[in-house]
Design a protein that fits this description.
This protein is α+β, with helices and mostly antiparallel strands and 1064 residues long. It contains 12 helices and 53 strands. This is SRCR domain-containing protein.
Length: 1064
C-alpha cells in the first residue's frame, strides 16, 4: 500500500486533470459513480494543490487507459489519501473510461497583499505548500484585481499596478495566468492557464490597490440614519468626519437606497461606538448613466478620535434618481428590488414630478419635457403610473399602478427639470404645495413668517414666487398648525407686484424665538384639488373639491355622465361608468361647493364647468354627487369560500377573469395577501372553481417579491379577449382564511389619494369599530403597528382620530390576533395631544424589526362622534377587565329590586280596584266620571292646538309652511322642533296639513281661523263639548302670529309631504 501513488493528468496545470492512481505497479483511473467535491478535496490536499475548486466526471480531461482501480469512492473530506475513503474494493468493477473522474484544485492555500500602507493594498502573493509565491504582471488584469479585493473584503479594485510597485518578492513566482470574469468570490474559482516556460522575474511582480473598505452601513440609528461605518480589511469601523461633507453624505444615502441626505448631524448624536475609526477620504463619482459606489481610501486610525465619527440622516425615500442630465434634471429612473429602469413618460405629470424633485432636494419641478429629451432609456422600461397629491415626501408614497398599462416606447421616457437647490420659500401643512403656513429659508434653516397685518398683497407675492397662480385667501393657522422654530421674516409689507417675498419692505430677519405675532397662511389658486372619497378605490366615490383651503362636496342637481366624465379624466381614472346620485357613497359634511354643474365633457378641470358659482346651492348632503370611473379596479375569488376560487378582476364596470399564462406562486401569494387570505397560495387547474362567463381581462402578469399588490405588477394591456380559451383562467387556493373586520366597503382605502387620515387608520378584530388591532394604510397596503413603547398616550391619539372617545387601555402582544402584511410603524411616541397618529414621532415607515406577535391594539371608550346623525350617540363601552365581573352582583340586585317594585305596584292596583268595585256595588255609577276624563282630554288638546297654531304663519299666497329645520343641527335639538331658516338655504322644508280637514290629508291652503259651520260639525259624540271656543282662540292666535313669523324660501325644490294631523 505504501507504493501507491496519486497524480493529476492531462490538465492545464499541475493542479488540475484526470485522477490517476498507481497500484500494484500499474497506473489506472477512478470511476465517477458517486464522485463529488468531498472526494476532490481529498485528492487536492493529497497532491499538495490546496483546496478543491470543482469535481468533474465523464472524462472531463479525456479518457484514460488501463484498469479502473476505484469505483464508488465516498470520502468525508478529511482523509489523508483517496484510497482511505470508502469504496467497493481495488479493481472490483471494470468501468468504461468514458466515466473517468477529474478535479480542479486551487493550487494555493492562501492569498495576501504585502508591502502596502494597509491590509488592502500591496504585492499579490499566493501560498503554495510552505512558501509564498508572487504573481507575474503579464498574467494579471483588472478583473483578477477585483476578485482579490472582494475576497479580502477590501471593497473595489482601484487598479492593478505592475513593475513591483510595492517592492520585489523573494521566493518563487506562480506559473499560472489568471483568467477571471470579475464576479468570482475567490481567486481560486478563476480559470487558470499553466505556463511552464514563462520568463517573468520579480521586477514584474503585480500589486493591487483596493478601495480600502468592503461595504458601508449606518449604525446606532435607523436603516436610513446613523453613524457611518465601513468594513475595512474584514473589520467594521466608523469613518472619520475630517473629510466628510454633504455631497458624500448625499451619495451614500442614494447608495443605501435611502433617498437623499437631509443633514449631517454633529458629534456623538449616534454615539461614539467601540470600534476603530478609519481616517480617510470619501470620494464620489458620477457618470452618464448611474451613480457609482463611493470609494474610501483609509489612512489609518491614529489621527481621528471616536467623537469625530461621520454621521448622516437620509430622507428614507427609496428608488428614484435622475440620469443623463444634471444633479437636478434628467431622465427619471426608478428601482424595483435591485433593478433600475427608466420610467415610462406617457402618463407622467407635474404633480409626480414635484414630489420627485423634493425627494431629491432639488426644489420644485419647473417642466417635464416630453419625448426622449434626456436620451432613450436602455434596459428595463417600467410602466408604473404615479398618482400624487403633491404633498408626499417620497414618490413611492404616491398611489401607483402598473397592471394593464399599455406598452411604452423608449422615446416616451419620463423626465423632469427641477428648480434646483435654491428653494427659498415653502408652504406647510396644506393639502398641496400651494397652500399652507409660510416658511422662508435662510442659510440651511427654515424660518417662520410672522405678521399681524398679513394681507392679500403679501399672499399674492408668495403665490407668484411659488408659481401657484393667484392668491385666493389669507388666514391665521390654528394653534396646532403653528410653527415652533426660529423666525425668518416679520411684518412684511408688499405692494403685491414683487417677484419674491424678500423684495417686500420693511422686513426683519431673525433667528430668535417668535414673540406674540402670529404665523401666516396662504391659499393659492393652484391648490384646487378634486378627489373621490369614501368609495372602494381612488377611482370611485363621493366627489369632493378643495377650494380656499376647505374640502366640500358637489350637489347632484342635473348631475350626469358628462359631469362625471370630467371628474374621471382629471383624476386619470379613464371615463365615467356611472354618475351616482343621492349620496350613494355616503353623506359628506361641511361645505357644499358647487350646484347645478353642467359640463360639456371637454373641460380639463372640473371647476371650469358652468355652475351656480362657488358656495351657491339649495342642497343638503343627502344630495352629494358621486362617480364610478372605468379605471376603478377590484379583486375577488369566486365559486369558493372567499380565499379560494376563480380569480376575477373588476375593470371598466365589469367583472372578468385573469389568464394564468406566466402566473407564478409569487403572484398567487401577493393576491392572497391583498385579499387578506394569508401569505401564500397555490394555483389550481382544470376548472377547479368553474368556468367564467365575462371578459378575460388580463394575461402575462409578472409579479416580483418586492411588489405589494397585484396593481403594481406589470402585465399585458387590458383586453377583454386576453385568454385563448376558458381553460387558461386562473384558479387560486390561499393558505389563510379571510379575517372578518368591522370595516365597511365605503371606508376602505385602496389608494392614499382617496383617504383622509381617519380613513387610513382602522382597528380590526375587536367587538366593534372602537376596539381591536391597530392597522394603518401606507403605500397601497394595510399594515400593523409594533407594540414597542406602545402606551396610553399613543392609544389616546388613535381613539381620538377614529372618533371613539378617550382610550380605555393600550394593549400589546397582538391582543386581538396577529396581523398580516407589512409592519409599518415601530416605537411610536405620541404625547397625546396630536390630532393624528401621523403626527407622532416614530421610526421611518416600514423600518421595523418586529414580528406580528407584537401587534399594538386599543380599547376606546366608544363615544363615536358623527355628523350624519347628531341625535344618535353611542354609549361608552365598559372595558374588558375585571371591573365587569365586579359589577355583576350590583346589576343583579338592581334587576331584582325593579321586579319587586313592579309586583308591588300590580298588587296595589288590584287592591284599589277591589275597593272600587265594592263601592260601586253600594251606589249607582257616577255620570260625571266620564266627563272628568273628557275634560282632561280637552285641556291637553287645547294646549296642543294652541301651541301648533302659534307655530305657523299665513303666507301671502295662503300657503302655510313650517320654517325649515335641519335634521343634523349641531345643537342636538329634536328633529321635530321648529327651526329658523338656515343660511345654506336647504330645500327640504315640509308643508303642514290642516288638522281640521275631514280627510286628514289635505294641505293647508286657506287661512287658519275656522268657519263657524265647520266648527259646529266637529263635536265630541260622547261628552257633547264643542270646538267653537277653541276655534276662536286659535283664530286670534294665528292673527298675532302673522306679524311675527317669517315665510319660508319658496325656491326650494324638494318639498316633502308632511304627516297629516287629525283630531279625535
Amino acid at each position: 500500500m505504501c507504493d501507491d501513488e496519486l497524480r493529476l493528468k492531462n490538465g492545464s496545470s499541475p493542479c488540475a486533470g484526470r485522477v490517476e492512481i498507481k497500484h500494484e505497479g500499474q497506473w489506472g483511473t477512478v470511476c465517477d459513480g458517486d464522485w463529488d467535491i468531498e472526494d476532490a478535496e481529498v485528492v487536492c490536499r493529497q497532491v499538495g494543490c490546496g483546496s478543491a475548486v470543482s469535481a468533474h466526471g465523464y472524462s472531463y480531461f479525456g479518457e484514460g487507459a488501463g484498469r479502473t482501480w476505484l469505483y464508488r469512492v465516498d470520502c468525508q473530506g478529511n482523509e489523508s489519501a483517496l484510497w482511505n475513503c470508502s469504496h467497493i474494493g481495488w479493481g472490483a468493477f471494470n468501468c468504461p473510461h468514458y466515466f473517468d473522474t477529474g478535479v480542479i484544485c486551487s493550487g494555493f492555500t492562501g492569498l495576501r497583499l504585502v508591502g502596502g500602507a494597509t491590509t488592502c493594498s500591496g504585492r499579490v502573493e499566493v501560498e503554495h505548500g510552505k512558501s509564498w509565491e508572487t504573481v507575474c504582471d503579464s498574467h494579471f488584469d483588472h478583473k483578477a484585481a477585483t476578485v482579490i479585493c472582494n475576497e479580502l473584503e477590501c471593497g473595489w479594485a482601484l487598479g492593478p499596478l505592475g513593475g513591483a510597485h510595492f517592492g520585489e518578492g523573494h521566493d518563487l513566482i506562480w506559473k499560472e495566468e489568471f483568467q477571471c470574469m470579475g464576479n468570482e468570490s475567490h481567486l481560486t474559482h478563476c480559470h487558470r492557464v499553466f505556463l511552464p516556460n514563462m520568463t517573468c522575474s520579480h521586477s514584474d511582480d503585480i500589486s493591487v490597490i483596493c478601495s480600502g473598505y468592503g461595504g458601508y452601513r449606518l449604525a446606532n440609528g435607523t436603516r436610513c440614519s446613523g453613524r457611518v461605518e465601513l468594513r475595512h480589511g474584514g473589520t467594521w469601523g466608523a469613518l472619520c468626519d475630517s473629510q466628510w461633507d454633504f455631497q458624500a453624505a448625499n451619495t451614500l444615502c442614494q447608495q443605501l437606497d435611502c433617498g437623499v441626505a437631509l443633514s449631517i448631524p454633529g458629534r456623538e448624536l449616534f454615539g461614539k461606538g467601540d470600534r476603530p475609526v478609519w481616517n480617510g477620504t470619501f470620494g464620489c463619482e458620477r457618470d452618464e448613466s448611474r451613480r457609482r459606489d463611493c470609494l474610501v481610501t483609509a489612512l489609518g486610525a491614529a489621527e481621528c478620535p471616536h467623537a469625530s465619527a461621520a454621521s448622516v440622516v437620509c430622507s428614507g425615500c427609496p428608488g428614484g434618481r435622475l440620469v443623463n442630465g444634471t444633479e437636478c434634471s434628467g431622465r427619471v429612473e426608478i428601482r424595483y428590488g435591485d433593478t433600475w429602469g427608466t420610467l415610462c413618460g406617457s402618463q407622467w405629470d407635474l404633480q409626480a414630478a414635484h414630489v420627485l424633485c423634493r425627494q431629491l432636494r432639488c426644489g420644485d419641478a419647473k417642466s417635464i419635457p416630453r419625448g426622449a429629451h434626456f436620451g432613450e432609456g436602455d434596459g428595463t422600461l417600467w410602466r408604473d403610473v404615479f398618482h400624487c397629491e403633491g404633498t408626499e415626501s417620497c414618490l413611492w408614497d404616491c398611489a401607483h399602478a402598473a397592471l394593464g398599462n399599455p406598452s411604452c416606447s423608449p422615446r416616451e421616457t419620463a423626465s423632469v427639470i427641477c428648480s434646483g437647490h435654491s428653494q427659498s420659500l415653502r408652504l406647510l401643512n396644506g393639502e398641496s404645495r400651494c397652500d399652507g403656513r409660510v416658511e422662508i429659508a435662510f442659510g440651511d434653516m427654515w424660518g417662520r413668517v410672522l405678521d399681524d397685518q398679513w394681507d392679500m398683497n403679501d399672499a399674492s407675492v408668495v403665490c407668484r414666487q411659488l408659481q401657484c397662480g393667484v392668491a385666493e385667501k389669507v388666514y391665521i393657522p390654528l394653534k396646532y398648525e403653528r410653527g415652533t422654530g426660529p423666525v425668518g421674516l416679520r411684518n412684511v409689507q408688499c405692494a403685491g407686484n414683487e417677484s419674491h417675498l424678500m423684495l417686500c419692505s420693511p422686513f426683519l430677519s431673525e433667528t430668535r424665538q417668535a414673540g406674540i405675532t402670529e404665523d401666516v397662511g396662504v391659499v393659492c389658486s393652484e391648490s384646487r384639488r378634486i378627489r373621490l372619497i369614501n368609495g372602494p378605490g381612488r377611482c370611485a366615490g363621493r366627489v369632493e373639491i378643495y377650494y380656499q383651503g376647505i374640502w366640500g362636496t358637489v350637489c347632484d342637481d342635473f348631475w350626469d355622465k358628462s359631469d362625471a366624465d370630467v371628474v374621471c379624466k382629471q383624476l386619470g381614472c379613464g371615463h365615467a361608468i356611472e354618475a351616482a346620485l343621492s349620496a350613494h357613497y355616503g353623506e359628506g359634511s361641511g361645505q357644499i361647493w358647487l350646484d347645478d354643474v353642467n359640463c360639456t365633457g371637454s373641460e380639463s378641470k372640473f371647476w371650469e364647468c358652468p355652475s351656480r358659482g362657488w358656495g351657491e346651492h339649495n342642497c343638503r348632503h343627502r344630495e352629494d354627487a358621486g362617480v364610478l370611473c372605468s379605471e376603478f379596479t377590484d379583486l375577488r375569488l369566486v365559486n369558493g369560500d372567499g380565499c379560494a376560487g376563480r380569480l376575477e378582476v373588476f375593470y371598466n364596470g365589469r367583472w372578468g377573469s385573469i389568464c394564468s399564462n406566466q402566473m407564478t406562486r409569487v403572484t398567487a401569494a401577493i393576491i392572497c395577501r391583498q385579499l387578506g387570505c394569508g401569505d401564500g397560495g397555490d394555483l389550481a387547474r382544470d376548472f377547479a372553481y368553474g368556468k367564467g362567463s365575462g371578459p378575460m381581462w388580463l394575461d402575462h402578469i409578472g409579479c416580483h417579491e418586492n411588489h405589494q399588490s397585484l396593481w403594481q405588477c406589470p402585465s399585458k394591456s387590458w383586453d377583454p379577449q386576453s385568454c385563448n380559451n376558458r381553460a387558461e383562467e386562473t384558479h387560486i387556493s390561499c393558505t389563510g382564511i379571510k379575517e372578518k373586520t368591522t370595516q365597511t366597503p365605503f371606508t376602505e382605502c385602496p389608494y392614499s389619494t382617496s383617504c383622509t387620515d381617519k380613513e387610513k387608520l382602522r382597528v380590526v378584530g375587536g367587538e366593534d369599530v372602537c376596539s381591536g388591532r391597530v392597522e394603518v394604510w401606507h403605500r397601497g397596503f394595510w399594515g400593523t403597528v409594533c407594540d414597542d413603547s406602545w402606551d396610553m398616550a399613543d392609544a389616546d391619539v388613535v381613539c381620538k382620530q377614529l372618533g371613539c372617545g378617550p382610550a380605555v387601555s393600550a394593549l400589546n402582544e397582538s391582543a386581538f390576533g396577529k396581523g398580516t402584511g407589512p409592519i409599518w410603524l415601530e416605537t411610536v411616541s405620541c404625547r397625546g395631544a396630536e390630532l393624528s397618529l401621523w403626527e407622532c414621532p416614530a421610526q421611518p415607515w416600514g423600518d421595523s424589526k418586529c414580528h406580528h406577535k407584537e401587534g399594538a391594539a386599543v380599547n376606546c371608550s366608544g363615544a363615536i362622534k358623527t355628523t350624519a346623525s347628531p341625535l344618535k350617540t353611542d354609549f361608552p363601552r365598559l372595558p374588558p377587565s375585571n371591573t365587569g365581573r365586579n359589577m355583576l352582583p350590583i346589576v343583579i340586585c338592581i334587576v331584582l329590586g325593579a321586579l319587586l317594585c313592579l309586583v308591588l305596584i300590580v298588587l296595589w292596583g288590584q287592591v284599589r280596584r277591589m275597593r272600587a268595585l265594592r263601592r260601586g256595588s253600594k251606589r249607582p255609577l257616577d255620570p260625571l266620571s266620564e266627563v272628568v276624563y273628557e275634560e282632561i282630554d280637552y285641556n291637553v288638546m287645547a294646549k296642543k292646538q294652541n301651541t301648533f297654531y302659534h307655530s305657523v304663519s299665513n303666507s301671502e299666497d295662503s300657503m302655510t309652511k313650517l320654517q325649515y329645520y335641519t335634521g343634523d343641527s349641531e345643537d342636538g335639538s329634536d328633529p321635530g322642533s321648529v327651526q329658523g331658516a338656515t343660511r345654506d338655504g336647504y330645500d327640504d322644508a315640509r308643508e303642514i296639513f290642516d288638522p281640521d280637514d275631514g280627510s286628514g290629508s289635505a294641505q293647508i291652503d286657506q287661512e287658519v281661523p275656522m268657519a263657524p259651520e265647520e266648527s259646529n260639525r266637529m263635536r265630541d259624540s260622547q261628552s257633547g263639548w264643542s270646538l267653537r271656543s277653541l276655534t276662536s282662540e286659535v283664530a286670534s292666535g294665528a292673527e298675532k302670529a302673522d306679524s311675527t313669523l317669517s315665510l319660508g324660501d319658496a325656491h326650494y325644490d324638494d318639498v316633502e309631504d308632511g304627516i297629516p294631523v287629525t283630531l279625535t
